[in-house]
Each structure stands twice: as C-alpha cells, then as structure tokens.
Amino acid sequence: MLAIGTLIPPIIDGRLKIMMAGSGGNLLIIGVLVAVAGIGLTGWTGYLKDQKISDAEKKLSVSEFNFLKGVIAAILVGITGSAMSLGFEQGLQIAEMAQKTGIDPLFITMPVMLILLSGTFITTLIWCIYLGLKNKSLGDYVRSTPNNRLSLNYLFALMAGLLWFSQFILFGMGKSKMGPFTFTSWGILMGLTIVFATLWGLFRKEWKGAQTKIYLLLAISLMIIICSSYIIGISGSK
Predict the structure, then answer these.
(1) What tens digit of pLDDT does each residue of 92-146 get?
(2) Which residue range forms the structural domain that includes residue 108?
(3) Is the pLDDT of residue 217 over 90?
(4) Could you read off the pLDDT of 145-166 as tens digits, one per residue?
(5) How many domains, in total, are found in the chain?
(6) For residues 23 and 237, what is the distance between their CA atoms, to the nearest angstrom?
(7) Which of 35, 92, 192, 217 could cross-link to 228 by cystine, CB 3.0-4.6 Å?
(8) Is 130 buried (19+), middle (13-18) or exposed (0-12) by CB count in 10 A?
(9) Residue 38's Cα: distance from chain center in Å?
(10) Distance separating alpha carbons of residues 94 and 112, to the nearest angstrom
(11) Closest Cα partner for 28 from 15, 47, 40, 41?
C-alpha cells in the first residue's frame, strides 16, 4: 500500500517525472525502498515470533489467528487501499477550488474526503446490512442489554469512527504543507501507521512469549520505517 499509493499517483499525473529531474526523485525512491525493507523486516519478525509461540499461546493473544488469511487480506488491502491515495491526488482540483472560496488551507482536503469517503460509506452500509440479514443479527442494533451496554457500544463505535476519521483530518492538514509533491505524505502516513499499530500490538501483548532477539529485531525494523518516513518527507523539498 505504501509503495503503490506513493508512486502510482505521481506517475499518472507526471509529477514523478518532474521530481526525478532533481535530487528529490532519488530520495523518494530510496525512501520507499527503505520503507519496504523495514516493513518486510517487520513481517519477517512477526513470522519468527509465530514460529516460537505455540498455537495455544497464539489463540490467547489473537483469537482469530490465521496466517494464510492474514497474508491474503494484507495483499488485497495493499492494492485496493492505495486507491485512497490516488483519490486524494486526483481531488487536488477540488481542494484548490475550496481554497479559492476562502477555506483555510489547512482544511481544503475536507471537501475531497466528503466525496472520496462517500463511496466507502455506501459500500460498508450495504455490506453490514447484508451480513445482518445473513446472520439474522440486525435486531442487535436496537435490542436492549443489561447495564445499558448497547449505549456504550454505540459510544465506543462513535469514538472509533472519530479516531479513524481524525487521522485523515490531520493527514490533510499535513498534506497542505507538503508543497507541489503532496503525494509524499501518503508514504509518511502509511509508514507511521505501521509503527504505531505495531506499538499498539506490543501494548496489547500480541508479542507475548517472543524471545529477546525478536524484540530487538522488531525495534530495528521500526527504526528503519521511521527513518524511511523522514527520507520520503524531505524528498518533496528537494
């Protein structure tokens, strides 16, 4: 997702060719390669961890553990998820129009997100309704539960949605400061997303039982990704 989402949009609109005329293009390619290496090392570290942990321990930390399904899902998400980067870049004209109307440059990507995420909302709604009908669970949305848990579930769902959406608000704010090569922001977002997701996994004890050398290898891989984000970030200023 990181490599495709960072490189395909500027290849399509010609900005990568312009960037390659200067030193920034080489930095971008190096940054992406370093990021891919770091992500690959993180994945390999996870594989080593799984080899050292028994099936019973895996299920204690991740109840739905399935390595093959995880790999397939990651590949599909990597390809299809990068389309969001393409949508952001193709929506730059909308952002420019928003700025001309007087919207603060920090928030000019908001109209783009409104259009971009509308499709996601519709497909997700249809899929959830389908699953509800299939599993006969639509009534769970209104069925009362002890201790008012239904209200808490709605509250936590709302918080999760707001947290997820806030990443793109902040992403758009940062994107507005990236100059003409705004596509570099996607590589930074994806790289740091992996870093913080891994840290959250550590906090949730998903790596419990791993050997010390595996933790060390994981730390190295995360540092590589962080460094790659820096390289990708400065590439747009060259």
Answers:
(1) 889 989 989 988 888 898 899 988 888 888 999 999 999 999 998 888 888 766 7
(2) 2-235
(3) yes
(4) 676 788 888 899 999 999 888 8
(5) 1
(6) 10
(7) 35
(8) exposed
(9) 15
(10) 6
(11) 15
Q: How far apart are CA 34 and CA 209, in angstroms?
A: 29
Cα distance between residue 61 and residue 85, in whole Å = 32
Q: If you search the block for the tokens 């996870």, which residue do you land on?
A: 46
- Per the confidence metrics, is the pTM higher than 0.85? no
In this predicted model, which residue has the larger pLDDT, 57 or 22? 22
Residue with tokens 């390289």, as numbered in its chain: 231
pLDDT in tens, 60-76: 555 566 777 877 887 88
Kindly report the number of other CB atoms within 10 A of residue 101's CB atom.
Answer: 8
Q: State the pLDDT confidence band at 59, using cuts at 50, 70 and 90.
A: low
Sole residue written with tokens 């397939």:
72
Residues in the chain: 238
Q: Residue 30 — φ and ψ, nearest 5°? A: -60, -45
Give 49's contacts (C-beta < 8 A, 6+ positions apart).
207, 209, 210, 214
Short-list 110, 81, 115, CA closest to 175: 110
